[in-house]
Amino acid sequence: VHPNVSQGCQGGCATCSDYNGCLSCKPRLFFVLERIGMKQIGVCLSSCPSGYYGTRYPDINKCAKCKADCDTCFTRNFCTKCKSGFYLYSGKCLEKCPDGLEANNHTMECTSIVHCEASEWSPWSPCTKKGKTCGFKRGTEVRIREIVQHPSAKGSPCPATSESRKCIVQRKRCQKEGKGKKNREEKRKKSNKDESKETRQESKGRAARRQNREQRENNNKTQPKKRKAPNKEQDLAPVDTAH
């Protein structure tokens, strides 16, 4: 064993040095050099730190540095996250997004430009004036639509969501609220009165029919039964003419 190689290494090291730290790692761990001042120390990690990507070889697994503008990367030429001031696009970190794309400052990526989209217009509303639909000849009618897709920063802005136009209606008088209420009350009272009158008439009719039926029953009970008239042919006895 080399004098600089220590026995009983810790932290996942297969071999190590008192001065340089890990020299090799246990299986499946990644070897990476960490700089501490002017000194580099070898360490063994289960995954590579930010700014590095892992490469596996038969003899050793290593962590290699990403490009300078990458915060994290899959390989040296394919970034997955960029450092501040750069925007990610197709694995590359760019200071400015290509034409047809825009910078998303929330995700720090170059994304497609999204234009505003609106729904179809609704039918025109009834013709009104000051919230009323009567008592005027010229009024206004309105139609609306909804925004179904809001635009991105560089997308085309949304159009108006409402339109109005003048309209003409056949002039008619507005029914006064008090008068209308009074008419409704009178109609309801008249209806109730008619119903009460019909109910009384039906009750009187039933009472009269019941009284007539009871009177007929009483007359039948008090009237004597009629005797049957004698049969004249039976009462007339044959005359004996022999004497």
TrEMBL record:
<protein>
    <recommendedName>
        <fullName>R-spondin-3</fullName>
    </recommendedName>
</protein>
<dbReference type="InterPro" id="IPR000884">
    <property type="entry name" value="TSP1_rpt"/>
</dbReference>
<keyword id="KW-0325">Glycoprotein</keyword>
<dbReference type="GO" id="GO:0008201">
    <property type="term" value="F:heparin binding"/>
</dbReference>
<feature type="domain" description="Spondin-like TSP1">
    <location>
        <begin position="116"/>
        <end position="170"/>
    </location>
</feature>
<keyword id="KW-0732">Signal</keyword>
<feature type="domain" description="R-spondin Fu-CRD">
    <location>
        <begin position="11"/>
        <end position="110"/>
    </location>
</feature>
<dbReference type="InterPro" id="IPR044004">
    <property type="entry name" value="TSP1_spondin_dom"/>
</dbReference>
<keyword id="KW-0716">Sensory transduction</keyword>
<keyword id="KW-1015">Disulfide bond</keyword>
<keyword id="KW-0677">Repeat</keyword>
<dbReference type="Pfam" id="PF19028">
    <property type="entry name" value="TSP1_spondin"/>
</dbReference>
<dbReference type="InterPro" id="IPR006212">
    <property type="entry name" value="Furin_repeat"/>
</dbReference>
<feature type="region of interest" description="Disordered">
    <location>
        <begin position="169"/>
        <end position="243"/>
    </location>
</feature>
<keyword id="KW-0964">Secreted</keyword>
<comment type="similarity">
    <text>Belongs to the R-spondin family.</text>
</comment>
<comment type="subunit">
    <text>Interacts with the extracellular domain of FZD8 and LRP6. It however does not form a ternary complex with FZD8 and LRP6. Interacts with WNT1. Binds heparin. Interacts with LGR4, LGR5 and LGR6.</text>
</comment>
<dbReference type="GO" id="GO:0016055">
    <property type="term" value="P:Wnt signaling pathway"/>
</dbReference>
<keyword id="KW-0358">Heparin-binding</keyword>
<dbReference type="Pfam" id="PF15913">
    <property type="entry name" value="Furin-like_2"/>
</dbReference>
<dbReference type="InterPro" id="IPR009030">
    <property type="entry name" value="Growth_fac_rcpt_cys_sf"/>
</dbReference>
<feature type="compositionally biased region" description="Basic and acidic residues">
    <location>
        <begin position="175"/>
        <end position="219"/>
    </location>
</feature>
<dbReference type="GO" id="GO:2000052">
    <property type="term" value="P:positive regulation of non-canonical Wnt signaling pathway"/>
</dbReference>
<dbReference type="GO" id="GO:0005576">
    <property type="term" value="C:extracellular region"/>
</dbReference>
<comment type="function">
    <text>Activator of the canonical Wnt signaling pathway by acting as a ligand for LGR4-6 receptors, which acts as a key regulator of angiogenesis. Upon binding to LGR4-6 (LGR4, LGR5 or LGR6), LGR4-6 associate with phosphorylated LRP6 and frizzled receptors that are activated by extracellular Wnt receptors, triggering the canonical Wnt signaling pathway to increase expression of target genes. Also regulates the canonical Wnt/beta-catenin-dependent pathway and non-canonical Wnt signaling by acting as an inhibitor of ZNRF3, an important regulator of the Wnt signaling pathway.</text>
</comment>
<dbReference type="InterPro" id="IPR043601">
    <property type="entry name" value="Rspo_Fu-CRD_dom"/>
</dbReference>
<dbReference type="InterPro" id="IPR051514">
    <property type="entry name" value="R-spondin"/>
</dbReference>
<dbReference type="GO" id="GO:0005102">
    <property type="term" value="F:signaling receptor binding"/>
</dbReference>
<dbReference type="InterPro" id="IPR036383">
    <property type="entry name" value="TSP1_rpt_sf"/>
</dbReference>
<keyword id="KW-0879">Wnt signaling pathway</keyword>
